[in-house]
Backbone:
């Protein structure tokens, strides 16, 4: 990207003042060299709807960044250096080809929202366990089959697992300290795969189970359903 283009030059000058850079829909394959002039100020970077197959480790130099949008590219993974973005609060890498995640994501202790929807992830992303500020994790439309015991370490209030292939659900999901909304619609769960503990002894007050291997009305026969409905109703009352 050449600075000779007056419009693009203006774009960078504005970004120096606002800390916001939108490079969406530019048919980009790599980061523009000029982006480095924004290292001290860049708080929001939008690289969505481009043609990135790889995000270079150079991304790690933007250490004041709070929002990063990598959605709708052709990424198969995220770079290790993403773990250097310690101020990052919002990460959107939805609609890619991601099948693995770097362990360095566990360094991002300020994360609040992560969207990994519509990728090729096959293993539950336990890398987000222990992140105390993470409110929402969206891993819908992936290829998950198991929600493992390690899920207990998630601090999210909302977990979206819709449209996966989940057939095994650990009862330890009941131990998630803040989980209120659990979305499990359109998976491969049998009725007996729903641990009673989730209904009976958790903070979950809204669970979506439509489109699994049972009729939704059968949930009412599960042990703990009454306790779950008490929580559900209490939340509804607060809303009105």
Residues:
């Amino acid at each position: 990207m050449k600075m000779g283009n007056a419009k693009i030059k203006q774009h960078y000058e504005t970004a120096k003042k606002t800390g916001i850079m939108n490079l969406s829909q530019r048919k980009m394959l790599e980061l523009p060299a000029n982006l480095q002039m924004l290292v001290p100020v860049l708080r929001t970077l939008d690289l969505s709807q481009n043609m990135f197959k790889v995000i270079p480790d150079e991304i790690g130099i933007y250490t004041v960044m709070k929002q990063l949008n990598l959605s709708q590219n052709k990424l198969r993974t995220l770079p290790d250096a993403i773990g250097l973005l310690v101020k990052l609060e919002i990460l959107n890498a939805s609609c890619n080809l991601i099948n693995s995640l770097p362990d360095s994501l566990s360094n991002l202790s300020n994360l609040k929202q992560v969207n990994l929807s519509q990728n090729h992830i096959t293993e539950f992303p336990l890398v987000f366990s222990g992140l105390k500020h993470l409110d929402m994790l969206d891993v819908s439309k992936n290829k998950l089959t198991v929600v493992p015991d390690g899920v207990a370490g998630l601090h999210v209030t909302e977990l979206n697992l819709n449209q996966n292939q989940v057939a095994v659900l650990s009862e330890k999901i009941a131990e998630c300290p803040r989980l209120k909304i659990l979305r499990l619609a359109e998976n491969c769960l049998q009725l007996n795969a729903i641990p009673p503990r989730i209904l009976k002894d958790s903070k979950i007050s809204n669970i979506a189970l439509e489109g699994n291997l049972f009729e939704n009305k059968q949930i009412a026969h599960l042990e703990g359903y009454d306790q779950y409905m008490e929580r559900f109703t209490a939340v509804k009352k607060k809303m009105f």
Summary: The helical segments are 6-18, 196-200, 225-239. The longest helix spans residues 225-239.
